[in-house]
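Hello,

Our lab assistant flagged a job as stuck in the queue for most of the afternoon. It eventually completed. Since we weren't sure the result was trustworthy after the delay, we are filing this so someone can double-check. Below is the sequence as submitted and the structure that was eventually returned. Let us know if re-running is recommended.
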Amino acid sequence: MKFNDAITLIDAGRHDLTDRWSPGSFQQFLLTHYHMDHVQGLFPLRWGVGDVIPVYGPPDEQGCDDLFKHPGLLDFSHTVEPFVVFDLQGLQVTPLPLNHSKLTFGYLLETAHSRVAWLSDTAGLPEKTLKFLLNNHPQVMVIDCSHPPRADAPRNHYDLNTVLALNQVIRSPQVILTHISHQFDAWLMENALPSGFEVGFDGMEIGVA
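-- returned structure --
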């Protein structure tokens, strides 16, 4: 995420962050939660050299493995609170509680002219989060959609049916699906998404004013 020439990495799921990003090329991390698939890139990165890297995220006292005990150059003191807006180099960020098996926040990322909702990982939205999004309509919604359409309600991650139902309420004009499973990927090879929905991919850029 780039705004005012500052780069923020949302989560750290890639194990090759040190290869992809040179020292000083980004300013901070914004974490949704501390499951391993979202923070595994922090483990080798913490032993690097250079300036301290702020890590913003939910107040999860356990974190993941020994990240808090041995943070290295990572600064985990920047915990955020639900619906309390904070600033990242001019970008307004609002943490949004999500429904997941570990304490998890989505985020509304807001400039003077646009709003992007980042909602992963979750299955359904808490009532307060849904009301907030209805009152702060996002032009773009990036959302966890791990599963193809299924008959039963999913746990921990959305399926396509529940994402479609959610956007009938929120009515975001652009919905980008992320956290795709192999099963959903196979389904997508044979099925089309409705207008306004697309699958996120590595290297994808979303331009907002």
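-- support follow-up --
The delay was a queue issue, not a problem with the job. The result is valid. The longest helix spans residues 160-170. The helical segments are 17-20, 36-39, 42-45, 127-135, 160-170, 182-188.
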